[in-house]
């Protein structure tokens, strides 16, 4: 009986450490550079990904490189990595191989923040990157690859090993919001709808029903209302 009670308390503690909530019109705020501030996202994939789309909005004043989305597996610390190399350059990494996208400054500038979408499909290897609703030239990466279901997904830091080995020089400072992920490539119309804050709920990661655990100095705060007015939300 005592062992059962201890097991129940342990499970209750684990459940209590994981938040699941609707974060619509809210943001994760990372106020300063750190290697201890990050958010772990929980999701369960039933089968390896052979295609996906990831969309998110963010605000930052950083001019150095920083991680936007880090998905590690046991076989690869950079199973999926979306990284801002500098203000107008983004890298997309899949299974430790990367392609670089150079974004025209006028497309990457928005007084209300930026939205970025990245997609990939195994059948062709094609990678798409969209910034503020505008597409970049498609590139090719890891045709025939599949993304492992064993995932450690982290915001605010880049993983150099599964779930850890962070560097302060790669940390994110600013605000992240409206993060969604789908197990397919969205159509151009769907990406455009997501840019205008449309209702295209993610079936892998859904900002309106997000399971997460924050560590260190990360805060959940109301998103800036001016952003939603700007995009017609």
Automatic annotation (TrEMBL):
<dbReference type="GO" id="GO:0045087">
    <property type="term" value="P:innate immune response"/>
</dbReference>
<keyword id="KW-0479">Metal-binding</keyword>
<feature type="signal peptide">
    <location>
        <begin position="1"/>
        <end position="19"/>
    </location>
</feature>
<dbReference type="InterPro" id="IPR001759">
    <property type="entry name" value="PTX_dom"/>
</dbReference>
<dbReference type="GO" id="GO:0001849">
    <property type="term" value="F:complement component C1q complex binding"/>
</dbReference>
<comment type="subunit">
    <text>Homopentamer. Pentaxin (or pentraxin) have a discoid arrangement of 5 non-covalently bound subunits.</text>
</comment>
<dbReference type="Pfam" id="PF00354">
    <property type="entry name" value="Pentaxin"/>
</dbReference>
<protein>
    <recommendedName>
        <fullName>Pentraxin family member</fullName>
    </recommendedName>
</protein>
<keyword id="KW-0732">Signal</keyword>
<dbReference type="InterPro" id="IPR051005">
    <property type="entry name" value="Pentraxin_domain"/>
</dbReference>
<keyword id="KW-0106">Calcium</keyword>
<dbReference type="InterPro" id="IPR013320">
    <property type="entry name" value="ConA-like_dom_sf"/>
</dbReference>
<dbReference type="GO" id="GO:0005615">
    <property type="term" value="C:extracellular space"/>
</dbReference>
<comment type="similarity">
    <text>Belongs to the pentraxin family.</text>
</comment>
<keyword id="KW-0964">Secreted</keyword>
<feature type="domain" description="Pentraxin (PTX)">
    <location>
        <begin position="24"/>
        <end position="226"/>
    </location>
</feature>
<dbReference type="GO" id="GO:0046872">
    <property type="term" value="F:metal ion binding"/>
</dbReference>
<keyword id="KW-1015">Disulfide bond</keyword>
């Amino acid at each position: 009986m005592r062992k059962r009670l201890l097991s129940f308390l342990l499970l209750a503690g684990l459940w209590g450490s994981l938040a699941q909530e609707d974060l619509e019109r809210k943001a994760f705020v990372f106020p300063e550079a750190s290697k201890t501030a990050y958010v772990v996202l929980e999701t369960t994939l039933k089968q390896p990904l052979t295609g996906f789309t990831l969309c998110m909005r963010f605000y930052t004043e950083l001019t150095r490189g920083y991680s936007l989305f880090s998905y590690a597996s046991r076989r690869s610390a950079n199973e999926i990595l979306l990284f801002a190399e500098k203000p107008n350059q983004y890298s997309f990494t899949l299974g430790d191989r990367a392609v670089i996208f150079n974004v025209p400054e006028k497309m990457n500038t928005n007084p209300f923040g930026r939205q970025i979408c990245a997609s990939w499909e195994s059948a062709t290897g094609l990678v798409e990157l969209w910034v503020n609703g505008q597409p970049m030239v498609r590139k090719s990466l890891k045709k025939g690859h599949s993304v492992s279901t064993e995932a450690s997904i982290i915001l605010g830091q880049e993983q150099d090993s599964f779930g850890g080995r962070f560097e302060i020089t790669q940390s994110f400072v600013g605000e992240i919001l409206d993060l969604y992920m789908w197990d397919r490539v969205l159509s151009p119309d769907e990406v455009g709808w997501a840019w205008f804050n449309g209702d295209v709920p993610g079936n892998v990661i859904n900002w309106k029903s997000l399971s997460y655990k924050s560590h260190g100095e990360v805060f959940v705060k109301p998103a800036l209302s001016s952003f939603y007015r700007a995009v017609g939300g």
